[in-house]
Amino acid sequence: MRYDVTTGPLDARELEAAVAHPGAGAICTFTGIVRDNSRGQSVTHLDYEAYAEMAVPQMRKIGDDIKQRWPGARVAMAHRTGHLEVGEASVVVCVSAPHREEAIAACKWGIDTLKDSVPIWKKEHAADGSYWIEGDATKPVANP
Amino acid sequence: MAVAIGVRVRFFARLREQAGVEDESLQVPVGSTLADVYDTLRTGHTALEPDRNSVRAALNQEFVDWATKVSDGDEIAFIPPVSGGGPDAL
């Protein structure tokens, strides 16, 4: 199992290799990509900030929950922090399982839970200014 | 008997910008809760989010209730909602 918070580019193939094993008939990979628009505005770039000492254990907890809920699953997760350009990968969740149903369901649950509970924040730099994205809410930056 | 305990508080994202610092060490009375620590910090950092319900507290890298008491040497973090969910989703 592998859980990373890193400033370097993410390599989904590397995470897939980390979860692959002869008993796994399926690997499902979710890759989150920086999109060029948000809230009807064009986005120039993003900044991600993490509480790394807590984010990695929280990811491990999600991975352990996945292994409980989907026996036989193996999990790898990585989140990038710092400055990201449009088109770059910000997060990768990889789950291997004996069959595709478990792999797909566990991967979806993994990314949904990560987005809700892992302390990593996104600051969006868009045409109308810079905002912290907090769930459905946007909060202006205190010192843009 | 000690009358005060030392804790380290870390701020992230919007709260870091509001506080103007990444971390701060402070002394609080024995028996203080995380809510007490936050309220104490707000007196020194008046820009800090006034609605505590929109913030979550973490003690030594675990999410905990605001009523949790702090101990000497604890690391506290006050955490704004993360990008994919509000405080209710955490």
* N-to-C order of helices and strands of chain B: EHEHEEE
Helix content class of chain B: 10-25%
User: What composes the largest sheet of chain A?
Assistant: 6 strands, antiparallel
Q: In terms of per-residue confidence, which ranges of chain B show pLDDT below 50 for 5 or more consecutive residues?
A: 85-90
Question: pLDDT under 50 segments of chain A (min length 5)?
Answer: none
Under CATH, the topology of chain A can be stated as Aldehyde Oxidoreductase, domain 3
Largest β-sheet summary of chain B? 5 strands, mixed
* Average pLDDT level of chain B: 89
| CATH homologous superfamily placement of chain A | Molybdopterin biosynthesis MoaE subunit
**Percent of sequence in beta strands of chain A:** 35-45%
Count of distinct structural domains of chain A: 1
CATH architecture level-2 label of chain A:
Alpha-Beta Complex
Q: In angstroms, what separates the terminal alpha carbons of chain A?
A: 38 Å
Determine the fraction of residues in helical runs of chain A and give it as a percent range: 25-40%
Radius of gyration of chain A, in Å, reads: 16 Å
CATH class of chain B: Alpha Beta
Q: Assembly type of the shown chains?
A: heterodimer
Textual characterization of the structure:
The complex is a heterodimer of chains A (144) and B (90). Chain A is α+β, with helices and mostly antiparallel strands and 144 residues long. Chain A has a single domain, classed as Molybdopterin biosynthesis MoaE subunit (Aldehyde Oxidoreductase, domain 3). Chain A is 31% helix and 43% strand. In chain A, strands 3, 4, 6, 8, 9 and 10 form a six-stranded antiparallel beta sheet that branches. In chain A, helix 2 packs antiparallel against helix 3. Chain A is elongated, with a radius of gyration of 16 Å. The termini of chain A are far apart. Chain B has 90 residues and is α+β, with helices and mostly antiparallel strands. Chain B has one domain: Ubiquitin-like (UB roll) (Roll), CATH 3.10.20.30. Chain B has two helices and five strands; from the N terminus they run E-H-E-H-E-E-E. In chain B, strands 2-1-5-3-4 form a five-stranded mixed beta sheet. In chain B, a hairpin with a 2-residue loop joins strand 3 and strand 4. The longest helix of chain B has 11 residues. Chain B is globular and about 40 Å long. Chain B starts with a strand and ends in an 11-residue tail after the last strand. The interface between A and B is medium-sized, with 26 and 23 residues.
